[in-house]
Amino acid sequence: MFYYEVFILGLNLRPLTYHSKTKLEIYSLVLAPLSKNTKQAIILKEVKKPKFQTLEILSICDEKFSNIQKTLAKFISYYYACNLGMVFKIFTPFKSSNFINHNFDKTPTLSPLQNKALNFVTEHKTSLVFGDTGSGKSEIYISLIVKELNLGKQVLFLMPEISLTPQMEKRLKEYFGDFVGVWHSKITPKKKQNLLKDFEDGKIKLIAGARSALFLPFTNLSLIVVDEEHDDSYKSATKPRYNARDLAIFLASKFDIKVVLGSATPSLTTYKKQPYFRLKGTFFKSSKEVIYDENETQISSKILKEIKACLENKNQAIVFLPTRANFKYKQCKKCGEIIKCPFCSVGMSVHKDKNALICHYCGYTTYQNASCDKCGGDTFEAKRMGTSEVLNALQKAFKEANIAKFDKDEITTQRKLTNLLKDFNDRKIDILVGTQMLSKGHDYHNVKLAVIMGIDTGLAYADFRAREKTLALCMQIAGRAGRVGNAKVLIQTKQADFFKSYLDKYDEFLEDETEFREDLYPPFTKILRVLISHKDEKIANEITQKCLEIIPKFKDIEVIGHGKAVIEYIASKFRYEILLRSHTYKNLVMLSHVLEKIPNVEVDMDAIFFS
């Protein structure tokens, strides 16, 4: 009889001990009884016969994990302090793998500068293509992919999920035909099943996918391209809290895999840590006129004037603002109190189409005209205009124009995304009003005006990356206009000096930001966020104090700050946080494994979300 510790997949449990009549391989996938259910489990290690009675492993699964998957899972479990059962749950196992050789003849025509960039990334194991909008990064990626596929290898092309459009898929298929598979959260289980079969059979060699595509069963992977590497969507906000970009770089250090990162607005971390090729273009400077509007966030006369001129010239416009719904919150006119969600310490967003106030954190909805909890007043003022309100205002101002909304409330399926982008590029829509989704690398052919509203809110966040994120977002939205010919960008801001200094000088911004962060923040230090949450505020505070007592036992770790989280209360739980800093990751990792075992404590290595 053989005895094994196993982790149950998807459950945050300690290892459990089972027995088997046959010897099993470590990291084998098995079926094991748990309570009255049968669960998939992963074999952790063989152990001696325990003193207690054990249950028998029911069967060995046909599927298995590749060497790449096993190595990556172990690293995620270690670095992000998450048990292997939770980690292996996000991986897709495989039954077999085959390879079909095929020669790809079609390649893009590259300029001399693009050829230099191609040679640069070919010579480096990991590298960054720091390329302006419209400078031709995609052609470099495709040239690299052709080379690897012709060697019989597999390639992974990572991008933010919202960028995985049929438009992008069509472009890849022009070069790689049916050897391309697209993987993201919105494809149906049946499509995923068919794609996996074709992938295992060798019929698919190139996977274009969101961050979860990194966990597919690659057995012959030689190239990972991470487009828009600065994008926060590569970081998981739930357990395990990995960053797919960083995991790609880790794989390059362990296997014969090349990693190419790309962005027009790279993160400071990547800029400082990776060798880069600067692919400059005259696209931004030569084709854009930037207009500044110092009004408060509103549909100003300046905005209306520019949109009117744009429409009269038979052109299209995009309008960005960071808030969806009609307004961010309602405020009592009598005492200034904000109507908050009873389960979260956040203002409730105004949705006029539903005649409702909705919490965007827990989903709580109220349809009643609420009175002020503080003073009983019944007159309110709506604040922080959102996409729905701007849409309504523009529809009244431009009755003949076709105006559409592009945010999470509107785009709920992949089909809706596909149809909206197609209609916009077919010029059936004149103005697109949206949130950050507007910035995600979509190729708008006829946009001659980009209006950016509410951008100052990003600069006010309590986040060491606030300037970087806000400037990058502004540049990404501006980059959607004037893909062909001239265009205008109108930025509504009280911080015009900041944007004037850096809008077309991102290199200069990165150097100035380096001075600001040196010795204090990433990439010069490592950050660990510890989040404590509990329904009883007293207990949440006690757990926080317990964590603070443990921290000094670990060397070279500085407490940056601790106390109530920015959002103090979500889904009826009180939230406290501790922010830690160190110049090396090892002590933080050791500490995170200790703290993670405390109930109601979550740890986040290399945190980028601080709400």
TrEMBL record:
Keywords: ATP-binding, DNA replication, DNA-binding, Helicase, Hydrolase, Isomerase, Metal-binding, Nucleotide-binding, Primosome, Zinc. Gene3D superfamilies: P-loop containing nucleotide triphosphate hydrolases, PriA, 3(prime) DNA-binding domain. It holds the Pfam family PriA_3primeBD. It is an enzyme of class 5 (isomerase). Binds 2 zinc ions per subunit. GO terms for molecular function: 3'-5' DNA helicase activity; ATP binding; DNA binding; hydrolase activity; zinc ion binding. Residues 313-543 form the Helicase C-terminal domain. Zn(2+) 1 binds at residues 332, 335, 372, 375. Its EC number is 5.6.2.4. One of its GO terms (cellular component) is primosome complex. One of its GO terms (biological process) is double-strand break repair. Its cofactor is Zn(2+). It comes from the Bacteria. Zn(2+) 2 binds at residues 341, 344, 359, 362. Component of the replication restart primosome. HAMAP family: PriA. Initiates the restart of stalled replication forks, which reloads the replicative helicase on sites other than the origin of replication. Recognizes and binds to abandoned replication forks and remodels them to uncover a helicase loading site. Promotes assembly of the primosome at these replication forks. NCBIfam families: priA (TIGR00595), PRK05580.2-1 (NF004069). Belongs to the helicase family. PriA subfamily. This is Replication restart protein PriA.
